[in-house]
Structure formats: C-alpha cells, structure tokens
User: Which sequence fits this backbone?
C-alpha cells in the first residue's frame, strides 16, 4: 500500500501543482501515513490520503472546501470544522483493501449510495478513479 499511496499522492501533485500541505491530525508512524492537502482551484478542494499497514488505503475528497470563519484557511493551516462538511453532496470516501489471497485491490466509494458494490481495481484503475473524482 505504501507504493500505491506514494504513486497516488505524487500523481495528484503532478496533475494539480498548486496545492498546500496541511499538518496532519494523526500519524500512524511506522505502520502507515496520513497526508492532508488543499488543491488551490476554484472552489478549493480538500483531500486526505492515508494508508495503514499493507492492507488499507483511504482517500477522502471534499469537492468544495468550506473555509474557516475568517475565509483564510492558510492562516490556521487547518480545514474548517469537519462537521460543516457533512451536508455536502458530491464528496468521495474511497476505501481500498489489499486481498492477500488473490493479490488484488478491492474497494468502493462508501459515499456512493447508488453503487455500494465492492470492485476489483488495478493500480492504474485506482489512480484513474481518484483523478476522475477530483475532476468533477
């Protein structure tokens, strides 16, 4: 999962070069990593990518980032209160797992109420799915 985490992160940074990294609220130390960042588009988009051990990769996309009360997210280096984003539509919460028995990546967008089936992904398919979600 570490290599996929690195590949997805670097591909997003290459596709959207105007971004700001944010301090992470949590860290998995040697067992994984978390990176949060804002893509400076109009409207700004918020992302958080994390992996844990060699099993789970999670990617959260907020398509329209709600800024803090001063409308200056860079001032505090934090997203606005997370609860303010719960009513948004169009976000994605991807969860991918590595199936050791089959050697495949299985995942789904858990916010997609129209299709909650678990799909099998290649690394390229996973990356393309995330980039497509960002382009919405």
Assistant:
């Amino acid at each position: 999962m570490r290599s996929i985490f690195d590949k997805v992160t670097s591909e997003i940074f290459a596709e959207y070069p105007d971004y700001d990294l944010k301090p992470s609220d949590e860290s998995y130390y040697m067992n994984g990593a978390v990176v949060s960042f804002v893509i400076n588009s109009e409207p700004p988009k918020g992302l958080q990518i994390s992996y844990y051990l060699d099993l789970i990769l999670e990617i959260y996309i907020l398509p329209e980032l709600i800024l803090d009360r001063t409308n200056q997210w860079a001032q505090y280096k934090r997203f606005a209160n997370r609860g303010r984003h719960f009513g948004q539509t169009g976000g994605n919460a991807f969860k991918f797992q590595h199936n050791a028995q089959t050697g495949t990546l299985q995942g789904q967008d858990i916010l997609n109420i129209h299709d909650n089936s678990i799909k099998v992904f290649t690394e390229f398919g996973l990356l393309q799915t995330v980039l497509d979600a960002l382009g919405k």
Summary: Strands lie at 19-22, 32-39, 45-52, 56-62, 92-99, 104-109, 119-121.
